[in-house]
Amino acid sequence: MNHSQQQELADLLQKDAGLILSPPKSMEAIRTALADHVNQLINTDFDRLVSLLYRIDVPEKKMRYLLEQQQGENAPLLIADLIIERQLQKIESRKQFKKDDPIPDDEKW
Question: What is the pTM of this model?
Answer without folding.
Answer: 0.82
